[in-house]
Amino acid sequence: MKVTIDEDRCVGAGQCVLAAGDVFDQRDEDGIVVLLDPTPSGARLVEVEEAAASCPALAITVER
Amino acid sequence: MSEMQHVTERQPVTRTCPFDPPAEYRTLRDEAPIAEVTLPDGATGWLVSRYADVRAVLADPRFSARRRPLRTAAADAPVPPPPTGWFIMMDAPEHTRFRRLLTGQFTVRRMRQLAPAVERIVAEHLDAMAAAGGPVDLVHAFALPIPSLVICELLGVPYADREEFQRNSATLLRIDAAPEEVQEAQTAMNAYFRRLAADKRAEPGDDILSELVQSGELTEEELAGVGVLLLVAGHETTANMIALATMCLLRNPGQLAALRADPSLMDGAVEELLRYLSVIQYGVRRTAREDVELDGHRIPAGSLVVAALPSGNRDTTQFPGDPEQLDVSRTSRSHLAFGHGIHQCLGQQLARVEMKAALSALFARFPDLRLAVPVEEVPMRDDMIVYGVHELPVTW
User: Fold this and answer.
1) Number of structural domains, chain A?
2) Chain B partners of A31 at a C-beta cutoff of 8 Å?
3) B292: β partners
4) Which of A5, B43, B104, B138 to pair with B212, CA 20 to 30 A apart?
5) ipTM score here?
6) CATH superfamily of B3-395
7) Considering CB atoms only, which of B99, B108, B340 is closest to A14?
8) Contact residues on chain A for B106, CB-CB shorter than 8 A
9) pLDDT tens profile A23-42
10) How far apart are CA B352 and CA B180, in angstroms?
11) Cα torsion angle, B345, B347, B351, B353, sign
């Protein structure tokens, strides 16, 4: 699985961190998404897809 | 255009159960999910009631956040300009400038670090309730002070000033407030924040207002507007969720028992209560900037569009099983209670921390908590932008 993020779209809501905290984090200074793991293992698929689906700014893309 | 569009001609406002949105929303979702209706303030608008359409509207930049606010006493008045600094009514890129100044203050990590402090405040208020003895009004003894204290601390607002700002903030949230009342409350709060900002400039503290002042990014008037917005949004919404969720759990004893038996359900229960109760009861308004085609409907430029969050949160296509039932074991973080799109609630991680701390400790401390009046006598907030209870008499 390959995950990409769009920092410009990100609004810092933190939904991705709640859904998949091992894959996404937020920068302390402005809350913008940080991708911890661009190629998470298949075991994380459900939580990563939830992160992408719950992102209010549609800033996360997941390629399976 | 089908005749189904005329299933209802008004945005539904009358509830038959205090925890459910008006029942007509079910028919709307089935038969007229995008319907041109008369809104509670007499304006005409497009009411969007399905989950997918609500999300689509709120994520679509063709719908502007600048809109006619819901004010039943100002139906014919021209749309007032948004208060300076109120970025919930701005579009990108103007909105981005404000939001980016603040998102770092409300990250998941920062809010989780606040949890012990929130838990302390919760415990102090439960001690005071226990010492006073029941019955008490849970809103004034518990649900309102907790988020008020926390947001005051974060912003750097003296909690001692709460009487004035709680009164003004209540005025801003009354849908029947007269335009001059709204103006007066707004002016008073802005003046208060301008004074406070001047204090912070002279003597900075470890708080959001001081940081904003020092950043030099905002004019005085913008700073005051942001302060008012964060203060109002930061205490009213969570206060109402805490009180209404308490009442709802007391009226769903099976769900409360499940939660007490397994506290690990609490995170999910908070999400479920947010979904189920959806306190932004009249939905979120937008204005079409251009003609937009939405599911076969042509929404002309300039139209007011209402994204009905409470209705979307009861949509069976998104929430399998029976979304009309409270189910604390449901996993429903993709609910719409915090909105969707670039304006999704900035303080949502704080709200989660506060709700979890408040509800966990309240039910643990008072195992026999119960309503002190018949449920029909609880005054519901049908008259407010944010739903909930005006008072919640409880005893134990």
Assistant:
1) 1
2) 103-107
3) B299
4) A5
5) 0.96
6) Cytochrome P450 (1.10.630.10)
7) B108
8) 12, 14, 31
9) 999 999 999 999 999 999 99
10) 35
11) positive
